[in-house]
Structure formats: C-alpha cells, structure tokens
Amino acid sequence: MSVIKFIRFILIFVVFSLLVWFTWMNFVPLGTLKVKKDVEKPSPYFSDFYPSVRMRGIERDETGNVFRTMIVDPVYFDLLMPRQFAEAEVRIKYQKTQDQPLFVGLKKTNEPWAFDFRKLLDKGNGWQMGKVDFILYPFLIDDRTLHFVLSSPNLDINLKEIKISQIEVILKKEPWTWENFLPKAKRYLSKHLFFL
Amino acid sequence: MKFLSNLKIFFFQLSKEVFFVSSVAFFLFLILEDLKKGFVSFHLDLKIFLWILIISGMIALLGDKESRLTE
C-alpha cells in the first residue's frame, strides 16, 4: 500500500508541476517569450495563413528547407498572446528575388487595411532571416490577438513568388523584479477581483 | 502464481489512482482553459489527459469487477 501512496504522491506532484509551469508560462515573469511558427508544425499561438488559396501547400527544397510559397499578395496570420506585451520582434525566414519587396504589417485599428508596414531588408537572393520591430501600444490588440499581414505589392502581376519557411515572434514586456512585483500583483488582483 | 495475482492487484490499484488524479487534473485544466484561452492548450493537448482518463478508468472498472467476482 505504501507503494501506491508513493505513486499517488508522484502523480499529484506531476499535475502540480504542470500547473506551476502553465502559470509561469502564462505570466512570463522573465519578460521575454519566443514563439515560433514552422510551416510544417502548427503552433497553438499562431493561426494558419489566410486566405489559404494565396499560398501553395507545404514544399521542401533540396537543402531541406520546408516552406510555403506566397503567390498572391497579401496573406494574413494572427498571433494569440498569453498576455499583454509591450514589444514584438518579428523574424521571418524567407526566400525571394531582390526586386520584389516584402513588408510585414501589424493591424492598427479595426478599419480595413489599417496596417502599419515595415519592410524586410534583403541580403541576397537565397534564404534569409528578416527582422522587424513593433512597439505594441498603438496597435489593435483584439482580445490578446495581434493581426499580422505579409504584403508584397503586385506579386502575382510581376509573376513572382515568395517562399516563407519560418516565423518567429519575440514578445517582450517589463520583467518581474523585487521592486515592481508587489505593485504589479496588486494591479492584477484589483483588475481580476472586483472586491479588492 | 501469487506474484502474478499480486501484480494484477497492483496494476488495477495503479489504474484507479491514475484515474482519480487524471480526472481531477482534467477538470481543473478544463476550467483554467475556459477561464483563459491558451492557459493550458498552448503547452499541452488536453486530449492526452482525456485518453489517460478513459483508459485508466476502464482498467480500474475491470479490476473492480474482477475483485467482486473473486470475493
């Protein structure tokens, strides 16, 4: 029976550890959260690209890069954040010709086409990692969701294609410190527990 | 023979423990997920818990039935 009690303790410990881990990942006390969308592996943080007809299915090149090809501009994707963040650094692994620009946009308001665009700077024609930054406070955060767009004007008219392999977003906020922990906790509790 | 029968009893008892703990965990995680979308599902597929719950529950039920028959 003591073995069973020990197993019960282990099982409860596993569930409790999971709970602590979920809470840790939800509050992001260190202030930085890196989320990644591989075209092959769907991520719970990211939506699929939509409209899906503007991209071809999953392909693999001779060097082993897995990618989807954007054939019509623009395509959208959403990012559901675990909580509010102050900044987002968007890194995209892509391949395209240098004469065809690629922009990453983040939705500002609920109006159609109200995006703020950043251009990805090219370093050649091969696979490259482009990076753009957004300060999130003026943007539309629709129930913890950020709405992104990938745009390349006249992509289909110019008969060009853009291969997208990976999207990585590094979300940043103020980390917890001994000084700011108590005021933050008070603010959080007063927001979520109306009687405080 | 006694060893095998003890092992069987232990296995059924273990399934019962797994069933109780995983069912409590499943409902706890379900409530947390309902309160805040992504709290659990960002990190864990709740279907895994449901399967553990179903399989352990069935084994525990089987064990319960067998122990009643042998009494």
- Please give the share of residues in helix of chain B: over 70%
N→C terminal distance of chain B:
18 Å
Structural class, judged by helices and strands of chain B?
A: mainly alpha
Q: Helical content of chain A, roughly?
A: 10-25%
Q: So how many helices of chain A?
A: 2
Largest sheet of chain A: 6 strands, antiparallel
Order of helices and strands of chain B: HH
Multimeric status of the protein: heterodimer
Beta-strand percentage range of chain B: under 5%
Radius of gyration of chain B: 16 Å
* Main beta sheet strand tally, sense and closure of chain B: none
Arithmetic mean of pLDDT of chain A? 89
Structure description:
The complex is a heterodimer of chains A (196) and B (71). Chain A has 196 residues and is an alpha+beta fold. Chain A folds into 2 domains: 1-30; 31-173, Galactose-binding domain-like (Jelly Rolls, Sandwich). Chain A has helices at 2-27, 178-192; strands at 32-38, 59-60, 66-70, 75-80, 87-95, 103-107, 115-119, 128-135, 145-151, 162-172. Chain A is globular and about 70 Å long. The N and C termini of chain A lie far apart (46 Å). Chain B has 71 residues and is mostly helical. Chain B has one domain (2-70). Chain B has 2 helices and no strands. Chain B has helices at 2-35, 46-70. In chain B, helix 1 runs antiparallel to helix 2. The longest helix of chain B has 34 residues, at 2-35. The two termini of chain B are 18 Å apart. The mean pLDDT of chain B is 87. The interface between A and B is medium-sized, with 18 and 21 residues.
